[in-house]
Design goal:
Layout lengths: L1 E5 L7 H16 L3 E4 L5 H12 L3 E7 L12 E5 L2 H10 L3 E4 L4 H15 L7 E4 L6 H12 L7 H4 L1 E3 L2 H12 L3
Parallel strand pairs: 1-2, 1-5, 2-3, 3-4, 5-6, 6-7
Helix pairs in contact: 1-2
């Protein structure tokens, strides 16, 4: 399965890098392909390193202005002209999406995939990996949107909230019918 992972390129402490490394190992050992922003820095590097070490493939989608930070030895690397094209390519090359910890770029990517699902423009499974409760506030906001009628489909049809990488990957594999 080609799994797109939206995540930070920042250097983060062990409470975020350790679970990311563990999730990456699960992806690689499961024979999955990581589809990611292509950066060879920060948490993006941690996940790419882990997937590669565990035997998975790496498909990166960088963007012109970040090309200097792109991983030089990915199995495949595409350079998009802008962020909109990058998101489209990331989603086009993936079967499922995992949203890990990140900043405004990650939040932008997360809301775009959820908006596409809301309108029936994609049926890819989406997991929000809530490492260390990072997305507790966002989860609460989404639940409020659901309860107060702002979502035309149930929240559970849009996104699965996972507290760890094992639960995230199990949900994706079950959604894809992987045994």
């Amino acid at each position: 399965m080609n799994i797109c992972v939206f995540l930070s390129a920042a250097d983060l402490d062990d409470r975020y890098t350790r679970p990311a490394r563990e999730f990456a190992e699960l992806l690689g050992k499961g024979g999955h392909t990581l589809v990611w922003g292509g950066s060879d820095v920060g948490l993006m590097k941690v996940v790419a390193d882990g997937v590669e070490r565990a035997g998975g493939r790496l498909v990166g989608v960088s963007v012109d202005f970040l090309q200097s930070k792109a991983r030089p030895a990915a199995d495949e690397m595409v350079v998009a002209k802008d962020l909109a094209e990058r998101k489209a390519l990331l989603l086009g090359k993936s079967d499922a999406v995992v949203i890990m910890v990140g900043g405004t770029g990650t939040l932008d990517e997360a809301t775009e995939i959820l908006e596409l699902k809301k309108h029936g423009l994609t049926d890819k499974p989406v997991v929000l990996l809530n490492t260390e409760g990072f997305y507790d506030g966002l989860k609460q906001q989404f639940q409020r949107m659901d309860e107060e009628g702002f979502l035309p489909v149930p929240l559970t049809d849009l996104v699965f909230f996972a507290e760890d990488g094992v639960a995230a990957l199990a949900y994706l594999e079950e959604s894809a019918g992987v045994q």
